[in-house]
Amino acid sequence: xxxxxxxxxxxxxxxxxxxxxxxxxxxxxxxxxxxxxxxxxxxxxxxxxxxxxxxxxxxxxxxxxxxxxxxxxxxxxxxxxxxxxxxxxxxxxxxxxxxxxxxxxxxxxxxxxxxxxxxxxxxxxxxxxxxxxxxxxxxxxxxxxxxxxxxxxxxxxxxxxxxxxxxxxxxxxxxxxxxxxxxxxxxxxxxxxxxxxxxxxxxxxxxxxxxxxxxxxxxxxxxxxxxxxxxxxxxxxxxxxxxxxxxxxxxxxxxxxxxxxxxxxxxxxxxxxxxxxxxxxxxxxxxxxxxxxxxxxxxxxxxxxxxxxxxxxxxxxxxxxxxxxxxxxxxxxxxxxxxxxxxxxxxxxxxxxxxxxxxxxxxxxxxxxxxxxxxxxx
Length: 378
What we know:
It contains 14 helices and twelve strands. It is of the alpha/beta class. The protein folds into two domains: 3-242, Aspartate Aminotransferase, domain 2, CATH 3.40.640.10; 246-377, Aspartate Aminotransferase, domain 1, CATH 3.90.1150.
């Protein structure tokens, strides 16, 4: 089946009682046994739940995976992956990952004894130089948040396999519709389902997807043991949202390309970061490993001529808010918002400055968005 069909049909729970077209919400915390040792696949909802199972099947199919865990948040998904390892293990991480991921890995897991190296993963030699006998994994985010840097997934995962490393790819920015890391050699794919997969800014959640049966078994154990699975109601909302994923992603991309082209020609904009632009330094890589360029873009404003507070206040259609992936357009300053948890040194190293502005482009009318942004900049 094509992805548009999978998004609508895969995992839908067949309701034998009333022939419901949509997967029901099963809020029950526990399930009774027919007799000792005999039940109908579910015993306690922390371990497994029919609504959550339906979503797991759906998302695994969209990523061409076989095992998926559905977590309460995107950071819970990151936590589940990190708990595959132990203190003393060395993990190589992209230096420009999402601020929340950076905080969790750098401030929490590193303090627990994990050994972390943050590198520019665009340069494979930097990754090679950090590999040591205790290295266990590569943490890849592509496109990166917020500067839309790309990592050659096939190249890095091939390097990882040569050294028996687990390659983990955060695919949140593109969704399975525009990029499938497992097809490019990744062992694990992570998403914040809060973003494009749900697409309506009304739920937080995450998922971890793999094709490896042993990794899948370990992740299931971790999610159950730590109690970080999402609720049935949240799973239902994501199941509802994912049905329109292909349509939404096409609309996001169309608008993002138009805004990127507009911003690139504006005198008060110094640089635009969007992989769909031919001027993006990794445009060729984007064409090779991505089926689309996504709905995220960033730009560096000319702060000699633009006051960001004034810019944000003048906008009517772009809400000043963190997060992304919803149908509405959002705008923010990563320096003080989404990446504020990173140290100033780490932000500068990643290329983030006070002039950097990130836009999560929604699905509104293209011309309306351009007109609004133009009047605010002018």
